[in-house]
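[job 0417] fold request received: Antibiotic biosynthesis monooxygenase
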Amino acid sequence: MPSSTGIVAITRHVKPGSEVAFEEAVKGVILAASTFPGYIGGEVLYPQTKRGAWQLILRFETPVHREQWEKSPICQGWIARADALTIGPPNVVRVNGLEAWFTLPEVGNTLPPPKWKTAIVSAIGIYPVISVVPMLLKPITGGLPPWLATLVTIAIIMPLMTWVIMPQITRLFQQWLYPSPLKNSVHPSSHSKL
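[job 0417] inference complete; emitting structure tokens
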């Protein structure tokens, strides 16, 4: 994922009883965003507890593509719909590249961990994956040219890392990555509403 990728992570607390409507709204946001130029993907991180925070992550090829989405009337309409279903203002964090691997809804409005910590945790997550996945794919990729075998392997490893491995590894190392919420807190003025 290039370092210039435009990613926005929006954390919201849903009004009790509005969970189903909010989930439908989030799916609608992802569907609407997918029609915009530069859209790469989106995902929802569900709360661990009933009153926990929901997080929507949208990825665009560049920050410019992300801004085009955020400033669009379609996005503004979804913001209004989400506002009616949630409590208080959202926490909005814009990140680039692999920082999104370390964004957890339960951590809230915080800066990403230091790069040296993310490097260590990324290595812990990726080492077993790059050790095992190529061996498992050998029957499929064995007869392919090396460049194509590598492409197939990466096409499987990256989604696996993004949606399965890193959310779990980040939660496992949460206390170490985010030792003090006050220390890493982002001043509210550094975020705009989404």
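[job 0417] notes: The helical segments are 19-33, 63-71, 73-85, 115-141, 146-172, 174-177, 181-184. Confidence is low (pLDDT under 50) at residues 181-194.
[job 0417] exit 0
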